[in-house]
């Protein structure tokens, strides 16, 4: 079931987004390595997924359920990479509003994420921070 996008102004601290699952395949890794212009070759033949690829997929999954206004800026991320994930695995990303602050023209949003592997163990945890234009 596809969750409709929630507007920023409807968010409250503690709001939980619907979990989002994604399967990791070779094509995703190849596209990520090309987009990042990775020259190391470390992940080219490996079955291990680059950790930042997983973080990017978690961010993309989050944005499928969130509508942010034009002018929103992704200002920070704090991520802890706990475990590896391999090609062929399906990961599930959970996201929750950690903090929503509106002080005058300053609007900030922090969303916590937790990405679990197939065995329900943490792969990545962390937060994404955004500054939003005043409404």
Task: Name some characteristics of this structure.
single chain, 135 residues, alpha+beta, Thiol Ester Dehydrase, Chain A, five-stranded antiparallel sheet, two-stranded parallel ribbon, 39% strand
Describe this structure in words.
- By secondary structure, the protein is α+β, with helices and mostly antiparallel strands.
- The protein has a single domain (about 15-130), classed as Roll (Thiol Ester Dehydrase, Chain A), CATH 3.10.129.
- Helices cover about 15% and strands about 40% of the residues.
- It contains 2 helices and 7 strands, in the order E-E-H-H-E-E-E-E-E.
- It has a 5-stranded antiparallel β-sheet with strand order 2-5-6-7-4, covered by helices on one side.
- A hairpin with a 2-residue loop joins strand 5 and strand 6 (about 105-115).
- The longest helix has 13 residues, at about 50-65.
- Give helix % range: 10-25%
Give the strand tally.
7
Spatial extent as radius of gyration: 16 Å
CATH architecture: Roll
Topology readout:
Elements: E1 6-7, E2 20-23, H1 26-35, H2 51-63, E3 66-67, E4 73-81, E5 90-103, E6 106-116, E7 122-132
Q: What would you say about this model in short?
A:
The chain is of the alpha+beta class. It is built from 2 helices and 7 strands; from the N terminus they run ββααβββββ. The chain has a single domain, classed as Hotdog Thioesterase (Thiol Ester Dehydrase, Chain A, Roll).
């Amino acid at each position: 079931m596809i969750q409709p996008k929630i507007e920023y102004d409807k968010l409250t601290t503690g709001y939980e987004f619907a979990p989002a699952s994604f399967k990791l395949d070779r094509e995703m890794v190849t596209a990520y390595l090309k987009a990042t212009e990775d020259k190391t070759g470390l992940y080219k033949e490996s079955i291990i997924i680059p950790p930042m690829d997983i973080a990017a997929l978690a961010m993309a999954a989050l944005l499928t359920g969130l509508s942010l206004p034009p002018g929103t800026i992704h200002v920070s991320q704090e991520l802890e990479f706990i475990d590896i994930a391999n090609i062929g695995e399906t990961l599930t990303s959970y996201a929750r509003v950690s903090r929503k602050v509106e002080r005058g023209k300053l609007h900030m949003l922090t969303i916590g994420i937790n990405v679990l592997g197939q065995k329900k163990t943490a792969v990545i945890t962390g937060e994404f921070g955004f500054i939003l234009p005043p409404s």
